[in-house]
Amino acid sequence: GQQVMQIPQYQHVQEGEDFTTYCNSSTTLSNIQWYKQRPGGHPVFLIQLVKSGEVKKQKRLTFQFGEAKKNSSLHITATQTTDVGTYFCAGASNNDMRFGAGTRLTVKP
Amino acid sequence: DAGVTQSPTHLIKTRGQQVTLRCSPKSGHDTVSWYQQALGQGPQFIFQYYEEEERQRGNFPDRFSGHQFPNYSSELNVNALLLGDSALYLCASSLVVVLDSAVPYNEQFFGPGTRLTVL
Asked: Which of A23, A29, A32, A42 to probe by mutation at the B interface, max B CB count within 10 Å?
């Protein structure tokens, strides 16, 4: 069955540094979504990517969908303490949506 | 405009018991999905309801069942509880729109979750 792997599991950065999390699927995806979950909170939808090679930006966040539609990345430029949380990718394939295990980001002021 | 609400917020049960969790979707949403999130893990898809029917199902046993009502609210039932069922149960609502590319746009709004502890 479809598996979604996400790396790294943890990332600790100094405020102002960049951060990237990567997502890889064992199968070709129809689309991929990204969510952010703050400690003690619930996942919050960030974006959905659909097209091969798609790149979308939201302020300091850049999302990419691979050409083969099997991998994706989220890059945060110049992290801030408000970026703290766990970032999840969720890949959709054949009406099945699988979440990665998430990358937990901590930011030192 | 209320977002997704879930009840109860916390629940403690013992092995073998049954539990019912409730979810009210965001106003205007017609699709409800349920997820199980174990500590330190990503949400695992249980099933999705649309038009009062189970439309999709993840890899969960038949002990997990659900229902959607005409007002789009939903229930998740778990029978014969096991210790391993302890988790945060999340409900997510959405209004699926098919894009030009024929791929459904499915922005999910998650509720605060129900923390279930099985002793």
From this structure: A42
